[in-house]
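Q: What does the assembled structure look like for these inputs?
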Amino acid sequence: MLTVQVDLGTRSYPIYIGANLLNDRKLVAPFLGSAKVLVVSNETVAPLYLEKIQVLLGKNYRDAVILPDGEKFKTQDVVNQIYDKLLVDRFDRGCILVALGGGVVGDVTGFAAATYQRGVNFIQIPTTLLAQVDSSVGGKTGINHALGKNMIGAFHQPLCVIADTSVLKSLPDREFRAGLAEVIKYGLIGDLEFVEWLERNNRGLLDRKDELLSQAISQSCKHKAAIVAQDEREGGVRALLNLGHTFGHAIETATGYSRLLHGEAVAIGMVMAADLSMRIGWISAGDAKRVRQLIEIFGLPAVPPADIDKRRFLELMASDKKVQSGKTRFVLLKSVGHAVIESVTDTKLLDLTLIAGESLCRS
Amino acid sequence: MLTVQVDLGTRSYPIYIGANLLNDRKLVAPFLGSAKVLVVSNETVAPLYLEKIQVLLGKNYRDAVILPDGEKFKTQDVVNQIYDKLLVDRFDRGCILVALGGGVVGDVTGFAAATYQRGVNFIQIPTTLLAQVDSSVGGKTGINHALGKNMIGAFHQPLCVIADTSVLKSLPDREFRAGLAEVIKYGLIGDLEFVEWLERNNRGLLDRKDELLSQAISQSCKHKAAIVAQDEREGGVRALLNLGHTFGHAIETATGYSRLLHGEAVAIGMVMAADLSMRIGWISAGDAKRVRQLIEIFGLPAVPPADIDKRRFLELMASDKKVQSGKTRFVLLKSVGHAVIESVTDTKLLDLTLIAGESLCRS
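A:
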């Protein structure tokens, strides 16, 4: 088992990473004490793992709230459902919520924990690769509002995170690969060696070998934890984590959040960021090509859907939440393994990236 | 002007206390920068002070949400109303909410600020004495749920608090006196000198003299700030602030939150706490009498409604949120100006206090 410590003073917590961790009560016992535990999961994950979790939690387990599966259930109504259960069954301030599922379950459960009786503890058991490497680090919790995604929420750190690589075996292939896009992201942002390791181990990772998955997850969590420790509440350097996301969000919105998974859109976004970095003259044509290849050897899409034209891209990027005083700031590459945050002043270069399509990163 | 600094590390903030502070833009200007400001107020307070606040905020002012007045509007619906305004008018993460009103407005606005885009800044302008001495210190924000008061919420500290004694002139007499009950509480908990000062200055305070009000508010805020600084998230010593509240809450619930104001119920609760402390043998009959007199010279009720019998009291206290593992813990007096937290094991003494009625603190 590998352990990554997320270092946030009194709010520090460990992430345990490895195979078959859900069988190991020793991991959670120190956090449970005599607390009453409510598990929150969804209709896809609960049939697979809820029983295991009941055994894991033993006498602490009280009940479970099973949500419908999907981003569209990341709502106030669902949070209210959790509050109702907690209040009807008189869970007190010493209770613990356990989030068993992907990012949506984690975000909703974390937000309920952040706001029930002004904050109770919670434990994350992420069951997707994306949630293991992304949403389990950093304490972002929240829900969507009719007028915007993630508009309501709080920063609330868990007691611990258990990232069991065994549960990834049940993930659909496309979703698994979409999670790898975020793993690749950490390499591109700040770790050339990790990029090289990913290039060497693409087969084994795609075969979901526990040992390799543990290393990839641990490395990703370490990178995210280091960035979050510097910038817990997202004032500065944390924006680096948005590599590929400004383009990616525009693609997700343009395609109505249905045609592509988040990680797939981010994969394309990273190729676009590499392309733009090349046009600005920061990375070589060879490096840009390397980024695109890295995306492609993991079976991820590298080119945006042909029906999003330049105007639509510009429009959507302008309304991004991360826009500051009207200027769109991009996360770009100074080199492979070194990302920076920059406003792009030469809009002609940006235009070229937006219309490049199949020729992205192919100078 | 007096200033009390609430010391919470990076979340520290000042409370400005004095007459006519709402005319002084210099106080808020350093916090405003170029932020868009949304004011939240209610139908009672807005007609009196919203214009003044618009002038105070100047170019930063954007709009106001005016809520209906009353505890029954401390709900998720009202918070959603604030979210909607913020999202429709595209308030970004750099915005500031201003709470202009009593405790309900402060709690609701603070909770909206705590959860909008995972936390934006807010400024408290409390317009009741109770809010100035109680809810403006400590960062508790939240709303009620059909199944319990203050069950949903967050700890979220404001940028600053402006306690203008001039606005207290417009308070109904009964509400003003109820606020004084919480002022008295700080004396009884930990400051004999302050008790003596209150005994000497009861007339001037009831006449709402600015100078005396400033001193009373500042002293109260200092005491609360010192306790909160030791125990921001309410694990231990902060429970001292509940002097009079275990009895008080039972009285409020028994009377349907309509017959007595919160401060009035707390005033009675403090007399009951003094009575019980006397029966346990901690304070003398003279001291118990002194506590009752202190309550009475400020025109506050000292005796619970005759229709709450012992059984009802015990029942309601048992379901109090602060009950730990079945034992009701009381805040009692070791002496006038020194409160402690204790479980009462001799239930016969408690029974005597509950049935004492008019003879409370009169041995």
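Chain B has a mean pLDDT of 94.
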